[in-house]
Amino acid sequence: MSPRPPLPPFTEQTARQKVQAAEDAWNTRDPERVALAYTQDTRWRNRDVFLRGRPQVVEFLRAKWERELDYRLRKELWAWTADRISVRFEYEWHDAGGAWWRSYGNEQWEFAADGLMRRRYASINDVRIAAGDLRLPGHDHGRPTS
Asked: What pLDDT score does 143 carry?
């Protein structure tokens, strides 16, 4: 696979670019596209789920977005080093019963020299919200836009 810029070592500017690229990709809700940002043998912890490899990531994301409907995400750079980035994030979604949620969390990322993420560790908490409390772009007063 070809390199995925920006590449480490990161500066503040390139770390911000990497975070924005991740936010943009995740908001597509396309598991195959999102998985291309990770190494073939990537290692993940997402809440209490441990994954290894792109195929498991794709399967996980497919199930996630079947459950978390009208998902909208915002990520924010928290800190960075030469090959690591830490972000805080929040996302909004609703379940099949129509209940809306806002999920808050932190992720720790580690990158390979080619710019692919080899490790992603996420801690996430969910808070139930009223549809009128939605605040992320892409939601229209609790009515899904997609």
From this structure: 53
